[in-house]
């Protein structure tokens, strides 16, 4: 039987952070990935958090750590673990240097909306940070990587080590290896509808995962079978509206001109009755709030006219998206909408009149509400939700009129297992399950209430780095 100091389950951003640290520490390490390719959802990460990195110091952009801690605790209504946040915040700046020394390149530091300037954007996103940095570094340090291999069982033996049962995905052959420690890094459970439905705060049919598609709760089930606490806060990392079309992979729609025009611009969003439910401008500033507001509805549509479509294409739109969109218009928007209509994309609805549009999307109150909305636009006052007048774009003209159906885009989950400040998994009585660690999405319940804190951007991805290193350092120092 092969014998390892540590087996890491999942080769995403957190898994590779743990693997690189394990290589540095001289641990005999096996990194197991069930997919054909590595990186997982980490490939799409834009950047990671820090408060006092070298870059921030050079740019006089250091953030007060005490204020950050208080912000996160308040945002979570004190459901977050203050000790873990304190440790994470203190080490985050050093982790930026650690990443760069291992081949991950940081392009810039920025904020998101009106949030703190803590977001260290990768050059080439997480994909390059992993595949040009952490992955080759870990392998050069002797970490053994296997793909298309799934961990299907963990059995704790008398000396508190583990027999780890591996299933080869190609030929379905099983083999067992021994590990003194196991680190779970499978990314949570966003792609598991059953687990999503078991949380208190979700509307799973509206949640559209924009991730690797592999986060099915594997690590959680392995830990639960060993007595770990089922620790659900109902946190899905939602980034607001996402075009809803079950026939098209979500990642192909996210970030497009159509998507940005209806999800980044505070247009008129209505629910299944054809009535607004939020100040759209307040929602787009914090996309976690946008996601929460949308997830309370049964269906969501963005309603606009041909006049708005033409203005967004040829002239300007009201909310600047720089630096993510280089100019204040979407030059390809009209052509993209026409192409989507020709291809019969299910998220797009078009009709000559608002009455016909309401009938097509089954929103009975839509014509009356849009008449009311246009009256508010003429008066330059949103008496329903107090949206600023510059965003009250009248939905008028001779038609046609459009409705784009939205779901709630989500990136990962932030609950499932309870861990301590060393990322050790805890059982139902709050006691250690010796030798078992959870990192990244598998061990992030300590960070959140029910909502991701966009006001301090990069914290989840940064936690993947922190928790991966933290778990390995805990193994070495125990």
Q: Any idea what the CATH superfamily of the largest domain is called?
A: FAD/NAD(P)-binding domain
Radius of gyration, whole Å:
24 Å
Give me the number of helical elements. 16
* % residues in beta strands: 15-25%
CATH A-level architecture of the largest domain: 3-Layer(bba) Sandwich
Number of domains: 2
Helix coverage percent: 25-40%
Task: Tell me the major beta sheet.
Answer: 8 strands, mixed
Q: Helix/strand-derived class?
A: alpha/beta
Chain-averaged pLDDT: 95
- Broad shape: elongated
N- to C-terminal separation? 25 Å
Low-confidence stretches: none
Reported by name, the CATH topology of the largest domain is FAD/NAD(P)-binding domain
Q: How many β-strand stretches? A: 17
Name of the CATH first level of the largest domain: Alpha Beta
Protein name: FAD-binding dehydrogenase
Organism: Lactobacillus bombicola
Domain FAD-dependent oxidoreductase 2 FAD-binding: 5-443
Cofactor: FAD
């Amino acid at each position: 039987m092969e014998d390892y100091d540590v087996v890491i389950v999942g080769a995403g951003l957190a898994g590779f952070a743990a693997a690189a640290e394990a290589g540095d520490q001289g641990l005999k390490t096996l990194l197991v990935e069930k997919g054909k390719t590595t990186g997982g959802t980490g490939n799409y990460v834009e950047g990671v958090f820090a408060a006092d990195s070298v870059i921030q110091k050079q740019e006089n952009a250091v953030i007060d750590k005490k204020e950050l801690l208080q912000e996160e605790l308040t945002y979570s209504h004190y459901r977050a673990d203050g000790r873990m946040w304190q440790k994470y915040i203190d080490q985050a700046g050093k982790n930026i240097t650690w990443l760069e020394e291992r081949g991950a390149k940081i392009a810039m530091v920025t904020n998101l909306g009106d949030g703190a300037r803590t977001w260290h954007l990768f050059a080439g996103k997480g994909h390059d940070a992993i595949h040009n940095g952490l992955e080759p570094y870990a392998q050069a340090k002797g970490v053994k990587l296997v793909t298309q291999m799934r961990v299907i069982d963990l059995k704790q033996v008398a000396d508190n080590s583990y027999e780890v049962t591996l299933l080869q995905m190609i030929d379905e052959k099983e083999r067992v290896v021994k590990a003194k420690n196991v680190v779970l890094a499978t990314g949570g459970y966003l792609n598991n509808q059953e687990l999503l439905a078991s949380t208190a705060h979700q509307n799973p049919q509206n949640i559209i995962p924009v991730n690797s598609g592999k986060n099915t709760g594997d690590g959680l089930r392995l830990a639960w079978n060993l007595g770990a606490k089922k620790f659900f806060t109902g946190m899905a990392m939602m980034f607001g509206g996402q075009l809803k079309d079950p026939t098209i992979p979500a990642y192909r729609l996210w970030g497009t001109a159509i998507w940005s025009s209806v999800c980044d611009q505070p247009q008129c969003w209505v629910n299944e009755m054809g009535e607004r439910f939020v100040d759209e401008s307040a929602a787009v500033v914090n996309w976690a709030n946008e996601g929460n507001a949308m997830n309370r509805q049964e269906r969501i549509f963005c309603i606009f006219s041909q006049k708005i479509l033409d203005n967004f294409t040829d002239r300007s739109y009201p909310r600047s998206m720089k630096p993510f969109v280089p100019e204040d218009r979407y030059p390809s928007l009209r052509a993209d909408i026409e192409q989507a209509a020709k291809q019969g994309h299910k998220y797009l609805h078009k009709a000559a009149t608002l009455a016909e549009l309401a009938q097509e999307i089954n929103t009975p109150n839509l014509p009356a509400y849009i008449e009311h909305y246009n009256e508010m636009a003429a008066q330059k006052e949103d008496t329903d939700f107090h949206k600023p007048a510059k965003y009250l774009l009248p939905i008028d003209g001779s038609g046609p009129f459009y409705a784009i159906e939205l779901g709630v885009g989500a990136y990962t989950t932030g609950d499932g297992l309870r861990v301590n400040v060393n990322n050790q998994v805890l059982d139902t009585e709050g006691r250690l399950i010796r030798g078992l660690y959870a990192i990244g999405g598998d061990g992030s319940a300590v960070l959140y209430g029910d909502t991701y804190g966009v006001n301090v951007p990069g914290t989840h991805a940064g936690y993947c780095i922190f928790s991966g290193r933290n778990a390995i350092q805990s193994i070495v120092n125990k």
